[in-house]
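Collaborator request, handled under Task 6.
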Amino acid sequence: MKKSIWIAAAILSAAMLLGGCTKPAGTGTPVPGGNTAESSAENSSDAAESDTTAVEGSSEAVTEPSAGDETFTVGFDQDFPPMGFKGDDGEFTGFDLELAEEVANRLGRKFVPQPIAWDAKDMELESGNIDCIWNGFTITGREEGYTWSEPYMENTQVFVVQKDSGIATLEDLAGKVVEVQADSSAEKALQADADLTGTFGTLQTTPDYNTAFMDLEMGAVDAIAMDVIVAGYQIEQRSADFIILEESLSAEEYGVGFKKGNETLRDEVQAQLEAMAEDGTMTQISEKWFGKDVTTIGK
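Structure tokens returned to the collaborator:
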């Protein structure tokens, strides 16, 4: 009887031992925490798929750079042709953006044109959302606010009026409604000339110059104060009866503005601008947009 009990106990012990060493079908090698290598791999795969879905489903219409890519993000006003704007094909284009993209290519960086609200440009730069401001950006009057490239182009602030408005001189602007883009170089120039602005009937601001030209076309304003380069382009594109007054408001120069103290990136960009001037690339881009070379580097 005792022998029978001992044999039954031995058989039961052997069965328990075999059950503890046999893994269920479909599991991998045991890993700490009760997970198996196979289930861990499945979890990793699921996580990777989840991450991919998150990127693909993002509402941001921005192409994310691959890991390790360096970007060159340029802040610009998308309503400032021909320097930077959205073309008929929906893509961002313009003289300054073509220069910037060429610089990015030569630096081996991914070019990212980033449209910004012009009156928020300093916040965008300080926060690191953009690497520089490059969009008909006037150095004059802003010398101490940024780390600047060397000037690459000359510009003048002028007034645009209807051809049949009867306005031919600055004196004729007395009592008139004058419009200017908020936080623009033209606005700063007007603010510095109280004798002139004091004669205006009204000086008002607008978010962009496309709106300003529509206001001028409708007769809502009598004149626009703005960059001569942009004024000439707008008049040509619109085929409208606008003229630029011969008397100008101020003369200035365009440059690329970097965050104060960022001399490393400034020097890299400046070196490429000089190389582009020397090999003729800058001239080619200028002639494409203006029909002549309007740049000043190396001249």
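The cover message to the collaborator said: "The longest strand covers residues 153-162. The radius of gyration is 32 Å. Please let us know whether this matches your experimental observations."
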